[in-house]
Write the structure tokens for this entry.
Amino acid sequence: MLRFTVTFFITIANLFVLYWILRKVLWDRVASFLDERSRKVRGELEDAASAKARADELKDRYEALLANAENEAEWVVKDAEDRGRAEYRRIVAEAEAQADGIRRRAEERASFELRRAREELAGEVARLAVAAAARIAGRSLGGADDAAEAEAFIRAAESGRGR
Amino acid sequence: MSEAVRETMTVSERITESIAVKTVFTIHAFGLEIAISDTVVMTWIVMAILIALSAAATRRMKMVPGRGQAALEAFVTFVYDFAEENIHHHGRKYAAFLGTVFLFLVTANVIPAFTPDGGFGFEPHFTIKPLTRDINVTAAFAAVTIVTVLVSKIRYKGVGGFFRSFVQPMPFMLPFNIMEYAIRPTSLALRLFGNMLGGYIIMLLVEAVMPLVLPPVVGLYFDFFDGLLQAVVFTYLSTVFIAEAIE
């Protein structure tokens, strides 16, 4: 029990052998596995962080684009409204101009028709007056000179009444 | 030993017979007779168990661990952390050595509890005796530890630093510092040897006095708790000695 024997040296050799084998089979293997896993986890975390940064960047770009699109849409709507308003004004002005032209032409035509009707009426009245005068005077009037004279008379009467 | 012979022995004779280290066989090599004791055979068995379990446990490790792998990883991480906390930046290099010593001592100290067919007053077919009842085993562990301490000191402090450390903090400390290198391994070896042998003897006495009921209960302390405690003490002191040597 307390004798110093060769067991001492054999145990030392056994311990070295056990240390060498367990180092290969247990300690280094588990430690390298844990290192690999932590490396992998770290890598995945870095990937996730870079993916998040990229997503944030894309989000910022999207938001900027969205803001621009909103501004642009607002501008387009405003422009369309302005153009619509201008077109409206143009159409209204054009319609008013056309209406004025039509009215003016109608008035001119009406005054022309009135004048012509008056002239026709004056001719007719003169002819009737000559006929009436001839019947009263018992002689036949009806030559061109008589008619012209009667018409001149009526015109003079008209112009005197008009004054 | 036959049952009839054991019946005629006194308790002390039976205890003496139980704790004796016996030669199992002899190897003749290089003109030498190498007596292989039962503690050496048990050392090989413990080594085989540890190597087989380690190989099986680390054979197919998965990135997402199961319970067994998680426990193994936790233990290995604990050993590495323990070494790094105590020996600091060189700790990782010593973790495998300290872990191996711890695993061996725990297994060697606890394995007697797994004596088949024992207990309840029935004589087992064979008994597994603690390896550490042999002073040669504990002395070998202590010697390896102290050699590791000396080699570490020379490696990290240089030969000059190693010799200078003997006269520090004052020259008159030289004899004490030299003695320390003899006392430390001796205390390591004897502490482990004494505790394990004492526990084993107490267990034999308990079995002799009251073979029923009591041995399994007392065995929980002497076989499991004390075995684990002594392995922890040995490993912790080895760590402290190495840390002191290289700090």
